[in-house]
Amino acid sequence: MSNAGSVAPANPIPQRILLVEDNYLNRQMLEDYLVFCGYQVLGLADGTGFFQALADFRPELILLDLKLPGIDGYTLLEQKSCRQDYQSIPVIVVSAFAFKADQQRALKLGAKRYFVKPVSLRDLKQAIEEELQRS
């Protein structure tokens, strides 16, 4: 049998996720898990390089902690919502803030989903897949 006319399917380009998490172990664990799931991940330890990372990395989804050094996740959500070029990127919050008021505030500022730490990786992966399909 000849393979002359067949072309091997190209590997799909992995979808890009920007992960903003100040806790090193949490960031490493999430980053490793998401890479294992086939995503390309850029991890940030704080929000100072957030908009530069959006411009350079061009993520298709953002995982965002709320309690960050320097600039908090609420402020990043608010600033992102004011930037026309980034409004369509879905944000999933992964935070230790468990109060309903924190969740409502993040969702009001544009987050699509809200997970309280410790997060179920299976549930998070499902939410990521659903948000990426929608966008």
From TrEMBL:
- Name the source's superkingdom: Bacteria
**Record's Gene3D superfamilies?**
3.40.50.2300
In Gene Ontology terms, what is a biological process of this protein?
phosphorelay signal transduction system
**What Pfam families has UniProt attached to this entry?**
Response_reg (PF00072)
> What InterPro entries does the record point to?
Bact_response_regulator, CheY-like_superfamily, Sig_transdc_resp-reg_receiver
- Residue ranges constituting the Response regulatory domain according to the UniProt record: 16-132
Q: Which residues carry this modification: 4-aspartylphosphate?
A: D65
Q: Which UniProt keywords apply?
A: Phosphoprotein
Key word Cell membrane present: no
Record keyword Iron present: no
Q: Cross-referenced PANTHER family, in alphabetical order?
A: RESPONSE REGULATORY DOMAIN-CONTAINING PROTEIN, STRESS RESPONSE REGULATOR PROTEIN 1
* Record protein name field: Response regulator
